[in-house]
UniProtKB/TrEMBL annotation:
One of its GO terms (biological process) is jasmonic acid biosynthetic process. InterPro entries: Allene_ox_cyc (IPR009410), Allene_oxi_cyc_Dirigent (IPR044859), Allene_oxi_cyc_sf (IPR034871). Residues 223-243 are annotated as: Disordered. This is allene-oxide cyclase. GO terms for molecular function: allene-oxide cyclase activity. The keyword Protein transport does not apply. It comes from Rhynchospora pubera. The lineage of its organism: Eukaryota, Viridiplantae, Streptophyta, Embryophyta, Tracheophyta. It comes from the Eukaryota.
Length: 243
């Protein structure tokens, strides 16, 4: 009978290096298991991503470009009530015969270029009666309203509106080419509430388009728009003006 010999013991493990004996499992001097350190790599990737994000954000900002800090541009506008819009509407919430605190006056009138040769759009807003002033035969209102200039956008204003004297209102913002605008506007009463002249002092926006610029007609109770502007003929009105 052939002699039986014990087979030699060979230990292999996928997670360890092969060794000569069981005792050699205690240490692995000849086995080097590569360990990848990803922290540094990850930090570099994050930093690169942040820089790219900042760069992308900066490149998509609207250039403050053409707006020159501190520069004031003047814009001249006539607001005319031609009695064809049902404006103003007096809401006597005080239920008193005399104009009193709380009465509301929504209004909307036509707006023309200062030279009265071009229809610009409309005003739209509301006046809140603050005080009746009998000695002046008038009233003090808080006014909140906007001027609409067709495709160019709009300007919003707020402040005191006195029926008996000139006032200054704050320019509170705008849209289109007037986005980010600040400044003030002088309200000059010519014939209340039918003819009012405004001088805007605008800051924080690029140069106004040429068709909004020009020398205004001298104010007087007789001022009237040109027939072409009144009819809003294409050459005498802003593109897509609000009616």
């Amino acid at each position: 009978m052939a002699s039986l010999k014990a087979p030699s013991l060979s230990l292999k493990h996928t997670a360890f290096c092969q060794t000569k004996s069981l005792t050699s499992f205690q240490t692995f001097p000849q086995c080097k298991i590569p360990i990848k350190t990803t922290r540094t790599t990850n930090l570099k990737a994050i930093n690169t991503s942040i820089k790219a994000s900042i760069s992308s954000s900066a490149s998509t900002k609207h250039p403050a470009s053409d707006a020159k800090p501190g520069r004031v541009q003047e814009l001249y506008v006539y607001e005319l009530n031609e009695r064809d819009r049902g404006s103003p509407a007096y809401l006597r919430l005080s239920q008193k015969e005399v104009n009193s605190l709380g009465d509301l006056v929504p209004f909307s009138n036509k707006v023309y270029h200062g030279n009265l040769e071009k229809r610009l759009g409309i005003t739209s807003g509301i006046c809140i009666l603050i005080q009746h002033v009998p000695e002046k035969n008038g009233d003090r209102y808080e006014a909140i309203f906007s001027f609409y200039f067709g495709d160019y956008g709009h300007i919003s204003v707020q402040g005191p509106y006195l029926t008996y004297e000139d006032t200054y209102l704050a320019v509170t913002g705008g849209s289109g080419i007037f986005e980010g605008v600040t400044g003030q506007v002088k309200l000059h009463q010519i014939v209340f509430p039918f003819k009012i002249f405004y001088t805007f002092y605008l800051k924080g926006i690029p140069d106004l388009p040429q068709e909004l610029l020009g020398t205004p007609v001298v104010t007087s109770p007789e001022v009237e728009p040109t027939p072409a502007a009144k009819a809003a003929e294409p050459h005498a009105a802003l593109k897509n003006y609000t009616d």
